[in-house]
């Protein structure tokens, strides 16, 4: 089967969050399973772009209303990622350091989508299925169905995978003329709450809708930033497929970013060595339990609760625990977290920023990983931490609910129900008690390390769904 994945991110080419990890891994496993898989993404000014060789396989002009942007489709020459990678180069719009956050994001991602379809329509082979990811690619299913110049793609099934339904890519009808020509009888399809809503459009037009965990599929029926009723309406073509993790990249036995490699047989010693390295780097006490947070410091991830929870847990367990935070996001949260540094020197530290290598060391060297998310469509960090023998402490929501079971129920982690400082601190207290019972602690770590979250099984679920929609043609 010939599959196209279209996405704004893909690890290691360009990453902001978990979307990149998924688009960097799922295609590789689909390719290994014998399919012909291609990933298409914008060409940003990243390290990967500079350090790899590309050949231009197509060029053209994107027409966006009155604007005209030249574009090139660049193919990475060696398929080093395990699938064919194509970058859509539109220099004026994407030759920048950041992936998102520009005033012209709507123009940027719309041009990307149009260039991609211009190219795919012109190819001699027509793909079997097009899998779009999140709102940045949400107008593709619409354009395939209704834009005159993509008529050739009308019968190709499209699927939208929702990694985060809170972000929807809305813009005003004043920009309607950006879209390639289509029969205006269909203009209503673009509308949600008086705007063009890219995610809503994708959900309406795609032949199948997936979310990245089964629980998240249930949750968006009552919490989806205004799209709840739409998600209810399309339930018949929706499916929740839990993400996997790339067990080649995330393998404590081989991970080159660790101080010491270890397996399920040697994890006690291995984790301790990584912990010592980490504690050295951040002036923490390696004899005390280490609680870490890795991720974006946003309300959605419970980031606003962290400063208060950390302060309370550190004062209640004075000098008995360590807390380490790696992340960036909301400046207020960043400042609040940094303001604790003075009071809890030796037991608390932060690294404000994004650092992939450090993240690996933290998964390996921590005892517990905090994930107090308000919303978590899947969450990958809890799966990485389980694989590295680090016990996740999670709020039961979305994919966290599907992957972490409380140790009180013979599970692999620690769970609480409310996104509150009180619930987080209660869980930290349970973790402190568990840390003193080494036999029990190690038993739970082993359960986590032995859990299979690999993509092999999951990738089959995607293929089954593609087959289902292909047969509907
Ligand atoms: C988004 C979600 C996260 C999910 C990831 C990959 O970043 O917030 O929960 O794991 O996408 O699907």
Structural description of this entry:
By secondary structure, this protein is α/β, with parallel strands linked by helices. The protein folds into two domains: 259 residues, Glycogen Phosphorylase B (Rossmann fold, 3-Layer(aba) Sandwich); 185 residues, Glycogen Phosphorylase B (Rossmann fold), CATH 3.40.50. Helices cover 37% and strands 20% of the residues. The strands form three sheets. It has a nine-stranded mixed β-sheet, sandwiched between helices. A six-stranded parallel β-sheet has the order 15-14-13-16-17-18, with helices on both faces. It has a three-stranded antiparallel β-sheet with strand order 8-10-9. Helix 5 packs across helix 6. The longest helix has 18 residues. It starts with a strand and ends with a helix. The protein binds alpha-D-glucopyranose. It comes from Flavobacterium caseinilyticum. Its EC number is 2.4.1.21. InterPro entries: Glyco_trans_1 (IPR001296), GS/SS (IPR011835), Starch_synth_cat_dom (IPR013534). Keywords: Glycogen biosynthesis, Glycosyltransferase, Transferase.
Keywords summarizing the entry:
single chain; 473 residues; alpha/beta; Rossmann fold; 2 domains; nine-stranded mixed β-sheet; 37% helix; elongated; binds alpha-D-glucopyranose; alpha-1,4-glucan glucosyltransferase (ADP-glucose donor) activity; glycogen biosynthesis; GS/SS; Starch_synth_cat_dom; transferase
